[in-house]
Each structure stands twice: as C-alpha cells, then as structure tokens.
C-alpha cells in the first residue's frame, strides 16, 4: 500500500462516525478539478507512511475511533488493499471506502467478504460526458456502470456524490445523471472549491441557488439528494 496521508481524526468523512482517514497514492483518473494533486501524481520525493505507522496510530486511538476512511487517489488500484483492510477489521473498526468505481471486481470482493461497511462512489458526469472530466487514456464506462449497478442492489450502505462546477455541469447534465442513478439510496452534490492542490485551477463554483435547483431537479429520481459542504 502506498499511503501518502493520514488525517488522525475526522467527524466529516464517515457519516455519523468518528474516524481516521487514510489517503492512498496513485489514481487512474486525471480529473482537472481534483484537489489532491500530490496523491494523484505523487512527486518523486514523496514521503510515504509505513503500514506499521498507520496501525500504531489506530491502536493508540482505537478507544475513540468508530472507523477508518480509505480514500485517495484511488484505493482499489492497490492489490494489497484487502489484506490491509482485514487488519483494520480485526481491530473491530468500521471501514468506509471512497472509490471512482473503475474496479468493480475489487469492490464486490471487499463487500462480499465483509471487509467494508460503507462505499462513497464518485460520479463525475453523465454517461455521455464522463471522460471529459475523468481524462482517462483508456476509458471503459462499463466498469463504472457495473459498480453503480452493484451498489444499487443494496448489499452495503453507500452513497453517490458529484463535485459540481459551473464550466462542466448544467441542468441537462444533472437530469441525465438523475435518470442514470434513479432509485439510488443517497446522492450528494459537492460544490467545487479552489485550493493550492487543484490539478488545473480553471473552474468556478455554481451559486448556492443553482445548486439548490439541481437538488430539486434530482429529487424525483433520488429523493435522498442533498448538498454537502456548502458554506
């Protein structure tokens, strides 16, 4: 496991839980708005955490933690992810996985083997425009559709979420996403925010009013649609 970040305590990353968040390095997407540039494209002099450093922390904080969030980058790129999670589960902690959904077989295996308790899957765009954001050299929407369909079957607690930008998402796009995800358990819209770590800082956020209108547009498809992280 290439672990490039650790947030020791968070009340935000795992809904309703006190958690630590682990950031893995490497991603197969190159979303230009991503605010984790050094995780997606790690610099040559990057300092990684050892697994033992992570588990020393978890052991020390076990009494106050409910669970662990594993995010990235894209965690499912790491073949040793199941073994790493198994060690966390042996401690009695819950595990939430953040994923872009490009490795449905890994997600299914983690769910079917009881290694994760919650999945947050990013939905970048409508099917037709997906790769305009993902920027993959070899793009396979079928893998993402497979992950969406599997999560919608309800084997595990989950949510879908989309980061919204004025330059990329309009009401027609949101309607197309709503039709795709119709019947999902939960969907969160997150407004784009500028930061020093954005890969390509050329985007701007929609107004709060526009974001609210997107939520109302989506609710007929996914009643549990909400805004997250809006100031």
- The gross shape turns out to be globular
Radius of gyration equals 17 Å
CATH class: Alpha Beta
Low-confidence stretches: none
Query: What's the CATH topology name?
Result: TIM Barrel
Helix content: 25-40%
Beta-strand fraction estimate: 15-25%
Describe this structure in words.
The protein is an alpha/beta fold. The chain is built from eight helices and eight strands, in the order ββααβαβαβααβαβαβ. Strands 1-2-3-4-5-6-7-8 form an eight-stranded mixed β-sheet, covered by helices on one side. It is globular. The chain starts with a strand and ends with a strand. The mean pLDDT is 93.
Summarize the structure.
This protein is of the alpha/beta class and 231 residues long. The chain has a single domain (3-228), classed as Alpha-Beta Barrel (TIM Barrel), CATH 3.20.20.70.
């Amino acid at each position: 496991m290439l672990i490039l970040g650790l947030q020791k305590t968070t009340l935000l990353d795992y809904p309703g839980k006190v958690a630590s968040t682990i950031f893995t390095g490497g991603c197969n997407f190159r979303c230009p708005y991503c605010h984790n540039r050094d995780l997606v494209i790690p610099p040559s002099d990057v300092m990684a955490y050892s697994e033992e450093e992570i588990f020393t922390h978890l052991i020390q904080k076990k009494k106050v933690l409910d669970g662990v969030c594993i995010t990235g980058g894209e965690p499912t790129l790491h073949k040793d992810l199941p073994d790493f999670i198994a060690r966390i589960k042996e401690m009695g902690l819950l595990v939430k996985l953040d994923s872009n959904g490009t490795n449905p077989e890994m997600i299914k295996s983690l769910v079917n083997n009881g290694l994760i308790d919650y999945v947050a899957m990013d939905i970048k765009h409508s099917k037709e425009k997906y790769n305009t954001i993902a920027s993959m050299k070899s793009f396979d929407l079928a893998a993402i559709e497979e992950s969406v369909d599997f999560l919608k079957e309800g084997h595990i607690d989950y949510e879908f979420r989309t980061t919204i930008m004025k330059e990329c998402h309009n009401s027609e796009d949101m309607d197309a996403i709503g039709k795709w995800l119709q019947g999902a358990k939960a969907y969160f819209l997150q407004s784009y925010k500028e930061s020093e770590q954005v890969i390509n800082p050329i985007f701007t956020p929609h107004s709060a009013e526009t974001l609210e209108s997107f939520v109302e547009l989506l609710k007929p498809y996914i009643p549990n649609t909400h805004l997250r992280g809006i100031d």
